[in-house]
Write a structure and sequence with these properties.
23 strands, TIM Barrel, Lyase, Ornithine Decarboxylase, Chain A, domain 1, Methane Monooxygenase Hydroxylase, Chain G, domain 1, 23 helices, 16% strand, ten-stranded mixed beta sheet, 638 residues
C-alpha cells in the first residue's frame, strides 16, 4: 500500500479526496481540516466547520462511550430548504400553474427528534407526513404540523386505522386516505358513514414504468401496492356509484426508492401525468398528483446510474417532474395538479454519522519471526525458504505459483503425519511472506494480473471495530449497500494498510468488505496502522432507514446518540445526549426481565454460599456486579 500511494505521488492534501472521495459524496456537509481531521459543516458554510474528533472528546469527557451516532439537525434544515426551493425554482421557470407540497415518509426514520425537526424546518413550506401503518399514524397524530400540511395515509388499513385517520381531521390534520385496492372503498364508506364524516381520498395506481437500482422492484406494474389501470376504472366506477366521486382528490404513484437514472423518472412521470389528465377529463376533481419517493442519494460520489449513485441533482429532479407534468397538462387541456413528493432518503440520509472505534487488527499469515535454517528439518520447508530468499521482480509470478504447489504439499505431509507442527508453521509463515513480496512486485506491472489483485484482497487486514453491522448499517449486510467510510483523523497521512471491517457479533456476516470508490467497488479500505492512540472510523449517510431497520443481533442494542448544533461563530453545542440501550433493556426485548434476572442470580449466589463455594463477601460482590451489569452498555467499554 505504501508503494502504491507513493507511485500515485499524492500530496497530503490530495489523500482525503483521491482515496476516500470526500468531496464527491459529502454534499458540502463534510470536509478535512489542514490538520487532517474530518470536519462537519451543517449549514454548508465552509467557515463553520467543526472537527468531529473534538465532538468525540466532548462526549468522552461526559463519560459517553463509543460507538456513537452523531446527529446534525441543521443538515435536516438545509436539505428541507434545498428540496422545496428546487421545486419553487422549477415552478417559476416553467410557469407552472400549481404548487408543490412535500411530505416525509415516516418509514425512513421514525425517531421523534428527527421527525419533529423536519416538521419545524418545513413549517414555512407546509411540509407534511406520510404514514403506512397504524403505529406510524399514532406517532404522527400528536406532532405539530402546519395547518395546511398533508397527512398521507398509505398501506393496508383496518377499521381502527381508518377511524384514526378520519378523526384526525377534527384535531387539525389534513388526512388523505389512499386506496390500495378496490375493496378499500367499501370499508371506507362504512367507517365514514358511522363517523358521519366525509374523508378525502386518494388512489394508488401502478404505472408500467419503474425505477432503476436496488429497489426498482418496489415500483412498476408488479409492485406490492396499488392498482393497475383496469382496476382503476373499476374503482372510479364504484366511487361514482357510491357518491364518493367528489371526495377523490389524489392520484398516488410510486416507481421505486433510490432511483439512479433520471430517464426512468421522466418516463414514469410522463405516464403518471397522462393518467391524471385522463381521470380528470372523466369528471373526477383530482387536485393532487403524488409522484411518491425515489429522489436518490449519491452514496459513492460518482454521479452515475450505478446502484449506489444517481446521475442527476435535486434541481434536475424537480425540473423534470414540473416540466413533464406541465407539458402533458397543456397538451391535454386540463388544470395542473398540486405536485406531492415523498422524498425521504434524500432529506434524512446526510444528517447522521456513525462513529466506531477500532479494537484491534488481524493480519492474515503474520506472526512469528524469521526462521533459523538450522532448526528446519523438512525438505519442502527448505525449498520454500529458498523461494522466499530468491523471489524478485522478474521471477515473482513463477515463484508464487511454486509456493502454491509447495503449500499443498505441506498440507498433505502434515495430514499424513510426516510433518510436525513447527515445520508446518514455518512453511505457512514463508508462504504468506512470499505472497506479500509477490503482491509488492506485481504493482509495478502495467497490466497487473487478476490473481495478484485477488491475493491482495485476501491478505487485507481485518480491523475489529466496536459495532454491529446488523444494528447500525443493516443495509450493508442485507442489500450490499455501500456507505462512505473514512477515518476521522490522520486524513493527510499516508495510509499503510488495506483492510476490511469486522464487527463484534459472533456472525461471519458481521463485516463490511465492499467500499466506495469513484470508478469501482473496492474490496478493501485504505487505513492507517493502529497504535496506542484511539483510531475512529465514521460511516456516513446513515440517517435514512438504518435506525428503523437495525436489529439487536447478539443482543447488541441501540448506540449512544448525540445531537450537535453549530452556532454562527462556528462553535459546536450539544443539543442533547441520548444514552444507548443498556444490557437490561436489551434483555427485556428478548423476554428476560431485570427483576427475574436478579432474583435467579441472587438465588444461585445464595445457594453457592450455603454450599460454602463462596464467602458472604463474594456473594455480595457477585450480586452487586450482576446489578451494575444490567445498567451497562452492550458494546465494549474498555
Amino acid at each position: 500500500m505504501k508503494e502504491l500511494t507513493q507511485s500515485l505521488r499524492l500530496s497530503p492534501s490530495e489523500i482525503p479526496n483521491r482515496i476516500y472521495g470526500v468531496e464527491n459524496w459529502a454534499g458540502g456537509y463534510f470536509g478535512v481540516s489542514e490538520q487532517g481531521c474530518l470536519t462537519v459543516h451543517p449549514t454548508r458554510n465552509p467557515l463553520m466547520g467543526v472537527e468531529v474528533v473534538s465532538l468525540i472528546q466532548t462526549l468522552l469527557q461526559r463519560k459517553v462511550k463509543p460507538p456513537f451516532l452523531l446527529r446534525f439537525p441543521q443538515i435536516l434544515d438545509t436539505q428541507i430548504k434545498e428540496l422545496h426551493e428546487a421545486f419553487r425554482s422549477s415552478i417559476a421557470e416553467y410557469n407552472y400553474g400549481a404548487r408543490h407540497r412535500g411530505v416525509f415518509p415516516m418509514k425512513v426514520n421514525q425517531k421523534r427528534s428527527v421527525v419533529e425537526r423536519l416538521m419545524a424546518a418545513g413549517h414555512r413550506y407546509e411540509y407534511g407526513l406520510e404514514v403506512g401503518t397504524k403505529a406510524e399514524l399514532a406517532a404522527a397524530l400528536p406532532l405539530s404540523l402546519h395547518p395546511n400540511a398533508l397527512l398521507i395515509c398509505n398501506g393496508v388499513k383496518d377499521r381502527r386505522y381508518l377511524e384514526w385517520a378520519m378523526l384526525s381531521a377534527k384535531i387539525g390534520k389534513n388526512p388523505i386516505l389512499v386506496l390500495e385496492e378496490v375493496s378499500d372503498l367499501k370499508k371506507i364508506s362504512e367507517v365514514s358513514t358511522a363517523l358521519r364524516m366525509q374523508p378525502t381520498l386518494g388512489i394508488r395506481v401502478r404505472v408500467f414504468s419503474r425505477g432503476a437500482g436496488k429497489w426498482e422492484e418496489s415500483g412498476g406494474e408488479t409492485s406490492k401496492f396499488g392498482i393497475n389501470t383496469i382496476q382503476l376504472l373499476d374503482c372510479l366506477k364504484v366511487a361514482s356509484d357510491q357518491e364518493m366521486m367528489r371526495h377523490l382528490k389524489m392520484l398516488h404513484f410510486h416507481i421505486g426508492s433510490q432511483i439512479t437514472d433520471i430517464r426512468r423518472i421522466k418516463n414514469a412521470i410522463k405516464e403518471a401525468a397522462r393518467v391524471y389528465a385522463k381521470v380528470h377529463k372523466m369528471g373526477f376533481p383530482i387536485e393532487y398528483l403524488n409522484v411518491g419517493g425515489g429522489l436518490g442519494v449519491d452514496y459513492d460520489g460518482s454521479r452515475t446510474a450505478s446502484d449506489c449513485s444517481v446521475n442527476y441533482s435535486m434541481q434536475e429532479f424537480a425540473n423534470d417532474i414540473v416540466y413533464t407534468i406541465n407539458e402533458i397538462c397543456l397538451s391535454e387541456n386540463v388544470p395542473p395538479p398540486t405536485i406531492v413528493t415523498e422524498s425521504g432518503r434524500a432529506v434524512a440520509a446526510h444528517h447522521a454519522l456513525f462513529i466506531m472505534n477500532v479494537i484491534r487488527t488481524l493480519n492474515p499469515g503474520l506472526g512469528g519471526s524469521e526462521i533459523d535454517p538450522s532448526k528446519v528439518d523438512s525438505e519442502v520447508v527448505r525449498e520454500m525458504m529458498d523461494l522466499y530468499k530468491d523471489v524478485n521482480p522478474k521471477n515473482f509470478r513463477e515463484y508464487y505459483h511454486d509456493a502454491l504447489q509447495h503449500r499443498e504439499e505441506l498440507q498433505s505431509l502434515f495430514n499424513l503425519g510426516y510433518l510436525n507442527l513447527q515445520n508446518r508453521a514455518h512453511g505457512e509463515w514463508l508462504f504468506w511472506q512470499i505472497c506479500r513480496k509477490a503482491i509488492k512486485y506485481s504493482r509495478s506491472l502495467k497490466e497487473r494480473p487478476e490473481e495478484f489483485i485477488d491475493l491482495e484482497n485476501i491478505l487485507a487486514s481485518k480491523y475489529l471495530c466496536n459495532f454491529s453491522v446488523f444494528q447500525s448499517a443493516p443495509d450493508s449486510w442485507a442489500l450490499d449497500q455501500l456507505f462512505p467510510i473514512v477515518p476521522i483523523t490522520r486524513l493527510t497521512e499516508e495510509p499503510t494498510e488495506r483492510a476490511t471491517l469486522c464487527d463484534i457479533t459472533c456472525d461471519s456476516d458481521g463485516q463490511i468488505d465492499k467500499f466506495v470508490d469513484l470508478r469501482d467497488v473496492k474490496q478493501a479500505l485504505e487505513l492507517h496502522g493502529v497504535n496506542s492512540e484511539p483510531y475512529y472510523l465514521a460511516i456516513f449517510l446513515t440517517g435514512a432507514y438504518q435506525e428503523s431497520l437495525g436489529m439487536n443481533h447478539n443482543l447488541l442494542g441501540a448506540v449512544n446518540e448525540a445531537h450537535f448544533l453549530v452556532d454562527d461563530a462556528g462553535r459546536p453545542h450539544i443539543d442533547k445526549v441520548i444514552r444507548g440501550e443498556s444490557l437490561g433493556q436489551v434483555l427485556a426485548t428478548a423476554g428476560y426481565s431485570s427483576q427475574d434476572f436478579m432474583e435467579r442470580l441472587t438465588g444461585m449466589a445464595q445457594n453457592a454460599e450455603t454450599q460454602s463455594k463462596i464467602t458472604a463477601e463474594e456473594r455480595e460482590s457477585l450480586i452487586e456486579s450482576f446489578q451494575s451489569a444490567l445498567d451497562s452498555y452492550t458494546y465494549l467499554e474498555d
